[in-house]
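CORE FACILITY INTAKE
Project code: CF-77B
Contact: R.S. (postdoc)
Sample description: multi-component assembly, two entities in total
Requested service: structural model of the whole complex
Turnaround: standard
Below are the sequence entries exactly as provided by the requester. Do not edit them.
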Amino acid sequence: HHRSSHSHVTHHTQHALFTPLEHNHSLICFRCSLVTLTEKCPPPAKYGGRHTVTLIPGDGIGPELLNHVKELFRFSCVPVDFEVVNVSSATEDDINNAITAIRRNGVALKGNIETLHTLPASHKSRNNLLRTSLDLYANVMHCKSLPGVQTRHNNIDIMIIRENTEGEYSSLEHESVSGVVECLKIITRTNSLRIAEYAFKLAREKGRKRVTAVHKANIMKLGDGLFLQCCREVAAGYPDIAFDAMIVDNTTMQLVSKPQQFDVMVMPNLYGNVVSNVCAGLVGGPGLVPGANYGRDYAVFETATRNTGKSIADRNIANPTAMLLASCMMLDHLKLHDYATMIRNAVLTTMNETQVSQVLSPHCTLVTMRNTLTCSVLSPDLPSTLT
Amino acid sequence: HRTMASNVWRSMVRKCRLSRVVFSLQLQTVTLIPGDGIGPEISVAVMKIFESAKVPIQWEERNVTAIQGPGGRWMIPPDCKESMDRTLIGLKGPLKTPIAAGHPSMNLLLRKTFDLYANVRPCVSIEGYKTPYTDVDLVTIRENTEGEYSGIEHIIVDGVVQSIKLITEDASRRIAEYAFEYARNNQRNSVTAVHKANIMRMSDGLFLRKCREVAENFKDVKFTEMYLDTVCLNMVQDPTQFDVLVMPNLYGDILSDLCAGLIGGLGVTPSGNIGANGVAIFESVHGTAPDIAGLDMANPTALLLSAVMMLRHMGMHDYGKKIETACFDTIRDKKVLTGDLGGKSKCSEFTEEICRRVRDMD
């Protein structure tokens, strides 16, 4: 099976489906130098030309969205195999298995895992545990207005880089006196420098002009003051990129009145949560924006706003766009750029031209996407079972 | 919208223990804190408008600068404290909060001194001042004394800083009770608790538990809970789904400013702070705007609307209505507007226009 599918793939590329091989090759090399922000090369989980990616369905709408991804990948003959790891909220073992699987494969695609309040406080958020264990320090989200989606604001193009491991999400809490709870927010110099460095590097590589640090250093003078100071230090090393800082409450106000003024934003964990959700709402909602969590060695892709969506689960109304675009980001990370571009174009064409509303059945959306993909597939040698 | 706003503060009159404040036709004293930056100019504007409306109020001006008392503790000047304790009503302009100045924020100090535990900010769309969001009508009630703004920070080792977020049972219960009573007195349908208990299990968990407990005693008001990120997400898509929101300090700060942005910004948003022993301080929540200070360009609307709320709180509804109508009419007319509202007039011209309308009403 492997050999036949492998030969099918090589057969595929020789046709005019993609650009000529030479151009393709140089394009990939160019992209290589641009895209690799992690210090290591792409993950070695490749057998017979096929990558293995950990898939964590999660709760709520996660499983159905990831099924859509699997279907679309199967249809497009993407050389990716999914290793499914189910994580339930109950036991510790599940999440440890998931973490081991990601360490093995290097890349994961996940849905959100629900955190039940009824369980005792010692039961930490599984999603958070995953992020901190794998040290996925940068959460990157690109909010761009889509032409086919009606929103109150237009021409939004903001990249949000959020520190993903510390800050308010340190999960360090204790009840010192009965009825008084202390929660610690940790800001470290190392992590702040790291995230600022990441933000500026990304800004430079994407040709962005300005980085804005979001903080509350007028109140949290030491904590956010340290974060701001680190950003300023890193900014000094990038004179081609403008740097400014804005207080978080002013930022949210500016976002709802004039979001076009923002370019790249970098911030600690909690403010990142607020700002990314505001931006996602501005461009059309949680079903449209993909998110990526990058660490030095691993990368995990998911929807940007990390919703479990329990109220819309299993009713075939969840919008698959965010998860599909996240899977394209994953393909880019695996250096399968041509597949990524093909699927991304199909998704965006469907969104922009057919003006899909959020309540349209994802099944219909997928059929439309398949049709768009079929159009871009020029090869007459595709087996009829796949069209 | 106007009936809504007047109901808001009419019921605050009912709620507050006002036995010590005398509501008579004699002159009422109000502590006025002009503040920094554009503070003095807009305070003068408000005083002028009140004068032209012949409001029976006399102003007692006080300044707030941080001074170090015995034992090294920072505090507000004693004459300001004495005045406020006596008058129980305050109107405050913006105060400076410099970054890394060695002393805590002045606003924070005021809150601690008078135990101003609830910050109430009704956000209602202003007809005549168009924003992308219409029909906004919600109230954010923010716990104002603890939470992330406890001001307790330590450098553990070089390069590692720890900020402490404090959540207590008493403060959480108190703000929840206030929120539900407010909802009941103002005929609001629901109260939504905003939290992040999935991440901050113990602290926000405690806040949430207290809200649930208090909700049991207010069965006539619907109680829901929502994650902070979900609220932000839904707020920018459809703000009409929200009614009264209650939350700890930081989320309240961010959300109340977000909601202010929906209706047009801090330049038009009123705000009130309620204290535990009958003290109420109404303030404009915008910054000191040092870049336009002294240039007669400031917009006094926020402070004016806060002053109108103050009037309603004191039972002077007619005066409040008169001034508010004059203000809204001026904005709707669009002939004399300050720069931030889209016009080219000076602060003094805007003030004069409102004064003129007030006088014409008599």
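Facility notes:
- Chain B has eleven helices and 14 strands.
- Chain B touches chain A through 60 residues (CB under 8 Å).
Invoice: internal transfer
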